Amino acid sequence: MPVEPLVCARTATRVSSVLNRDVKQFGKQHLFDGSEETCWNSDQGTSQWVTLDFPRPVKVSQLHIQFQGGFSSRLCTLEGCRTGEELVKISELYPQDSHAMQISFQVEETVLDKLRITFGSSTDFFGRIVVYHLGVLGERL
Description:
Jelly Rolls; about 5% helix; globular; mainly beta
């Protein structure tokens, strides 16, 4: 089965925080809008995260992410589960502190309905994370 983008209009997205609560300028919708000029910008604090609730089961196989250099995460923890279950750790990723699109993350394929990406260690002194693009690829089941 070919790999395809899994985030769609019916995917429910939640984030840990938004800079100054300015959701219009820095909200979660900018993770997936395809624009190089918009981004999700977290507020300060440790352990920022993005949670995706897919409308149907998926098998995640790749993660594509583009941070703003200086506001990236040294460690990304991926957790997932089926509906009604507890999150379990799937993988740990170690992105570069770079503005380049990072597409080399291969994820152990797991069937899930919910995915949480936790940004555990920010390169920013205040713990802010800035993401211009987030792509979750795999197979819809």
